Amino acid sequence: MSTITDAVKRHPIVTFLLVTFGWSLGADAIAYSLYGRSPPTLAIVVRAWGPLVGALVTAGLSDASVRDLLGQVRRLRHAPRYYLVALTVPILFNSAGAVVYVASGVDVKLLNVSPVSFVVSFLVVLLLAGGLEEFGWRGFMQPRLQREYAAGTAAVVTGLAWVLWHSTFFAVFDFQRYLSSVEGFTIYLVEIVAFSVLLAWIYNKTSGGLALALVMHAAHNWGPLIVPADTAPGGVERLAEFAPPVAAVVVVVVIVAVDGWERLADSSPDPDVGRAPATADD
What does the domain layout of the chain look like in residue ranges? Predict the structure, then answer.
């Protein structure tokens, strides 16, 4: 057992990725064998636990504190503006296409969804599905990469791993729009990598505020809330697809200009988990 522990300690990122992909690909294989290319929501939820499982297994095998890893979500005392950013910025990204529609003379409307449905869906993603990925991507991988590389570089590498992890799911099931063309995949790649930098920023800016990353991830998964009121011309719709990644890149440029690529924060974030709960941010 000590040999395994030593190997995991030397290569925690590799171990994390192997367990993460192993869990999720295994879940995909089981779902595909049972349901074909259209799995139920529960199957999608189970595969989304991969990064969480990867972080827990790697921490456990390397004698790191699993309690400290999970305890990052207890750091809740942050300035209200960070919660506002976590909730609203991803939704604005997703709805950035509305600017293109309005500029092209296409009427837009709010998505027809009840507040109750919105809140329930948000909480499901936050507590049971995509939000839990953040224990692995930002709670485990990002801080460990920051020991050796700039925070921005760590965020890009984490984002690329995140894209690859999603792509295996898209390739197997009925989510082909992301992989149907080089253009479609490029749009997805740029948006997710830029979003990874934004998530790393809010994590570092709040000294390991993982709960904020969970909230931001769940908000991003909702998709656009402002949509065309009628069918938009093909050219306009295609142009609108570029709006979210462009908006994400613009925000990342602003973040880097203000807080720098090296730290993605105005102070050096501790790369380790397990610190005492942070006090309220200034």
Answer: 73-259
Residue 109 backbone dihedrals phi, psi, to 5 degrees: -150, 165
Contact 32, 169 (CB under 8 A): no
User: Is residue 157 within 8 Å of residue 77, measured between CB atoms?
Assistant: no
Of the candidates 16, 272, 244, 270, the one whose C-alpha atom is nearest the C-alpha of residue 137 is 16
**Burial class of residue 90 (count of CB atoms within 10 Å of its CB; 0-12, 13-18, 19+):** buried
Question: Around Cβ 251, how many Cβ atoms within 10 Å?
Answer: 19
* Residue range 196-251, pLDDT digits in tens: 999 999 999 999 999 999 999 999 988 888 999 988 888 898 899 999 999 999 99
Q: Determine if the pTM surpasses 0.90.
A: yes
The DSSP H or E segment spanning 109 is: strand 108-110
How far, in Å, CA of 252 to CA of 152, rounded?
10
Those residues whose C-beta lies under 8 Å from the C-beta of residue 49, and which sit 6 or more positions away, are 23, 27, 132
- Residue 80 amino acid letter: P
Rounded Cα–Cα distance for residues 279 and 73 (Å):
13
